[in-house]
Amino acid sequence: MCGRFSLTATPEEVQELFGLAEIEGFPPRYNIAPTQPILIVAGDLRRAEGDNRTNRRALLARWGFLPGWVKDRNDFPLLINARSETAAEKASFRAAMRHRRVLVAASGFYEWHRPGKGTKQKSTPYWIRPSAGGIVAFGGLMETYISADGTEIDTAAILTVGPNREVAPIHDRMPVVIEPQDFARWLDCLNQEPRHVADLMAPARDGYFEAIRVSDLVNKVANSGPEVQKPVADAEPEPAAAPATRKRSKPTEPPSDQMKLF
To answer: Rounded to the nearest 5 degrees, what angle is found at the Cα of 16, between the Cα atoms of 31 and 108?
Structure first.
């Protein structure tokens, strides 16, 4: 799955990659979490015949997909991901897969390697980014949800697929990656049915990503600065425990020139 990602590229870099006519400014974001707004690109602008301007637009959407038929969004589960293998048949995603495919702009994503059940080891976080740098486009789905009081909210989910070589040792799922040469086909919901773009929902090619171990700082949404992407070395083994029969003496008072913790 994809539960956290990052977008630290500049608005100008995003505009150039996705061929946008305009884009509003935004700050770098290092730890994007579910329910927060995410930047998506849709190809749904209607142009008159002969108008050669792009039909793509950038907009913000809530990361947490809400199908139009939901009565009370507070009673509906948070859908941040959609399995690419079944999205075209699932009631929640079927309409969006046919009519509202989008691209999600990112600089990379985070994933956690979880130890087997019964172990006391903690999950290990990794920052997974394109090995060549730059921006990556995730395949996504969009729905404009209208609540009972008429309030509209754009919502989105990220499509996932099985892992490639770099992600497989960490997790069994990863975001769908749409390459720039396939943007037009993916966004063309008028002419390209889900079956026509099924080939695009495959694991990213081996070597596309690199996985970097990072600290537990990324676990907390409140940690939203570049420090969450700082690489860390492999954890050192814990020192052997002292013999149980040995009784420790009472610690002596530290010298007066040393700081005290309490």
So the answer is: 25
Gyration radius from the chain CA atoms: 23
Task: Provide the whole-model pTM.
Answer: 0.86
Cα distances (Å, whole numbers) of residue 98 to 18, 91, 187: 21, 12, 10
Q: What is the pLDDT of residue 46?
A: 85
- Per DSSP, the residues of 79-111 read B-EEETTTTTTSTTTHHHHHH-EEEEEESEEEE
Our separate counts of H helices and E strands in the chain read 3, 12
Q: Is 2 tagged catalytic?
A: yes
189 as an active site residue: the answer is no
Marked catalytic residue, from 22, 89, 111, 193: 111
Among 2, 143, 166, 189, the one annotated catalytic: 2
